[in-house]
Amino acid sequence: MAKCAICEKAAHFGNNVSHSHRRSNRMWKANVKSVKVITDNGPRKMYVCTSCLRSGAVERA
């Protein structure tokens, strides 16, 4: 499963709770994109979450 290379945001786990209050497992996935990013060693592809992209924590190539 993909994880953000900057903030290490990944999937979270919890329960679906129905109206009758029965629980089943569920998963929230982070909005992670594969992006070409400028690093010290030149451009490179990495997984980055959209909140890091919007905040300007990464510079796209």
UniProtKB/TrEMBL annotation:
Pfam families: Ribosomal_L28 (PF00830). GO terms for cellular component: ribonucleoprotein complex; ribosome. Keywords: Ribonucleoprotein, Ribosomal protein. InterPro entries: Bacterial_rp_bL28, Ribosomal_bL28, Ribosomal_bL28/bL31-like_sf, Ribosomal_bL28_bact-type, Ribosomal_bL28_sf. The keyword Hydrolase does not apply. One of its GO terms (molecular function) is structural constituent of ribosome. One of its GO terms (biological process) is translation. HAMAP family: Ribosomal_bL28 (MF_00373). Belongs to the bacterial ribosomal protein bL28 family. NCBIfam families: L28. This is Large ribosomal subunit protein bL28. It comes from [Clostridium] aminophilum. The gene is rpmB.
